[in-house]
Amino acid sequence: MKIIEGGVCAAKGYRANGVHCGIRKSRDKKDLALIVSEVRASCAAVYTTNLVKGAPILVDQKHLADGKAQAIICNSGNANTCNANGTEIAEEMSRLLAEELHISNDDVVVSSTGVIGQPLEIGPIAAGIPTLVAGLSENGTEDATEGIMTTDTVKKTVAVEFELGGRTCRIGGIAKGSGMIHPNMATMLVFITSDAAIAPDMLQKALSGDIQSTFNMLSIDGDTSTNDTVVVMANGLAGNPEITRDCEDFRIFMEALNTVNVALCRMIAGDGEGATKLLECKVSGGRDLASARICAKSVICSSLLKAAMFGADANWGRVMCAIGYSGADVDITKIDVAFRSCTGTISVCEQGAGVEFSEDKAKEILLQKEIEILVDLHDGDVEATAWGCDLTYDYVKINGDYRT
Amino acid sequence: MKIIEGGVCAAKGYRANGVHCGIRKSRDKKDLALIVSEVRASCAAVYTTNLVKGAPILVDQKHLADGKAQAIICNSGNANTCNANGTEIAEEMSRLLAEELHISNDDVVVSSTGVIGQPLEIGPIAAGIPTLVAGLSENGTEDATEGIMTTDTVKKTVAVEFELGGRTCRIGGIAKGSGMIHPNMATMLVFITSDAAIAPDMLQKALSGDIQSTFNMLSIDGDTSTNDTVVVMANGLAGNPEITRDCEDFRIFMEALNTVNVALCRMIAGDGEGATKLLECKVSGGRDLASARICAKSVICSSLLKAAMFGADANWGRVMCAIGYSGADVDITKIDVAFRSCTGTISVCEQGAGVEFSEDKAKEILLQKEIEILVDLHDGDVEATAWGCDLTYDYVKINGDYRT
């Protein structure tokens, strides 16, 4: 498997674009994105488990009932959530796009991200769609990525190439993250395209399985958004024998999908609102997957640990504390904790108690941009990883006045 | 019932003191506190549910097996948690105090708060105990309160007077809060004294019942500490007929205890690390107590909502979002949300959708020190309240470098 360029346009038969249509005030910020497959594609999606769901999700659940789609349209600047006429607006977005593309309305996936509870006007979107469609290009992944960003500071895009049944296949994805990121069955917006041939039910199985160890192990601030959505389209243009069951090809597809999703998770975590560091908590020695995951995620979610990482403070007691209240059934007296980054590794806790260590070396390790928090539960051989970021002044600044 | 002065010394037969013994570096900061009852008292306690427990808690569970105690000793500056010899040190603290006071070792409650995982030396404590005991006074509540503070900026003390069986009774308490506050069965350190006569099992019943609607509804940062402890002593010196069953007097005692605990909760929340505002989420119209409490606590715990409150931003979508992911079974389309403070009340969401409101008026309301977030679920008549604080630059600053 190899990492390649091209994002959502890397796979055969996809074009994308992003424009400014006027939902966001600043003309420099694109606010409408589009991804289109040349042919109808298998399409799977997972959504937020928040009871408050963005109106587009309700529309998508209907449109994807047949496991097929051809286009994804997404606006930023407004979440179209908690609006009395939200569903109408989302349906109108879909209808207008379908008309312009001459495809079936049911083959459109709609997404929105931004402020909750502010009416979304259809005007700017209706006016923007013709330009959006006219500008579709095989080099459009950057523009589409910009179109879905809110407080993101980095464009998140990745693609991989692999082989299935002797044919070259590709999977590529783009994502937006930043704040309100603590997915539960999905994450903020992630759009993935592939040219592999795979039946809709197997595509859904691949996605639903993979997110348990990828997007559901990611947290920026513990807030599960109302609009989280991961969509993957696979149009079959690679010409591989269609995957219709749990076979070796399915395993390869899963691995490629996982590579894309882990890469996007790391990008989302590293670009969390106000973040200066990517945190990866790697739990090993777990008795079972559930407890390993619970521990990893609890550590990544601790505000105190996140603030300590911002300050490059090797305050490992907060790691132990977070494991202790996680709800996982672990033996505290067996746990080892270490910190690792590109400058080295330092052990700070063994068998549940502190060990002497060099504060200078710890500081040097924690001053890096990517920090691994290594937890060995010494209770089995199961591993889990969770991703997050530090808690910084800028997180407070960004969220203290987001709407204005 | 009336609010009175005196904290833990308000009730008959209690003396207290606080000194600097040398655990904390700054000589200006007291780090050892003591509360003593003239006679053995009924004593009840609740502790953290964190699997990682401070060593003192293990000692206390043993000492309080008979429901009786006479003294509480507590150090700040070091949590005595995740230390290989933690239990020995906690036992030694207890033994030294018992010797100095000429009481039974089993009648001592030990507590520690501060950094996790740094060995606690017995030396300064052993040296400090004689001074601590010699200085015991009926006016010592302030000194004791100072002795248990860490990053607290405000002394938290309250007392009430009420009548039981024709006799005047009192309950008073002191608390420390600040960070790592998200109690589960208990909170950070709270010491309560009373002169009421009440059997140990009824005292435990009163405490365990009350914390469900008080300390367990409080969150500063979602981190459940390893050392959370609430202890209440009742020495019977008020001379009321002893409470031994669920009678009218028990109800009155519960009400007085609740008044003390709610007051301390509000003080702890308002003085959360870095906090500029006290947040109270009042949920009404709940179908049942569990769902009302889950909603209130989820709102109070949302980092995004907390940051918005810091910025006086009426971003009510984050209230809805937090209710949506709380896990409570609610009908989103029925929910009303309003903000209230001393300057007025403003409705921002009705039946799950935004309503037009004056941003200026909202700003004025949210710029106050105490903000109520009013949520009506319109699904019954059950109410619940949770307490928290805003998320600020100072929270990050304090916790980015707490150990150094």
The chain pair forming the largest interface, with residue counts per chain, is: A-B, 64 and 64 residues
CATH-defined fold name of the largest domain in chain A: L-amino peptidase D-ALA esterase/amidase
Structural category of chain A is alpha+beta
> What's the count of strands of chain A?
15
Average pLDDT number of chain A: 89
The topology string of helices and strands of chain A comes to: EEEHEHEHHEEEHEHEHHHEEEHEEH
In the CATH hierarchy, the architecture of the largest domain in chain A is: 4-Layer Sandwich
Characterise this structure.
Two copies of one chain form a homodimer. Chain A contains eleven helices and 15 strands. The first copy, chain A, is of the alpha+beta class. In chain A, strands 1, 2, 3, 4, 5, 6, 7, 8 and 9 form a nine-stranded mixed beta sheet that branches. A six-stranded mixed beta sheet of chain A has the order 13-12-11-14-10-15. In chain A, helix 2 runs parallel beside helix 3 and helix 5 crosses helix 6. The first copy, chain A, is globular, with a radius of gyration of 21 Å. At the A-B interface, helix 8, helix 9, strand 13 and helix 11 of A face helix 8, helix 9, strand 13 and helix 11 of B.
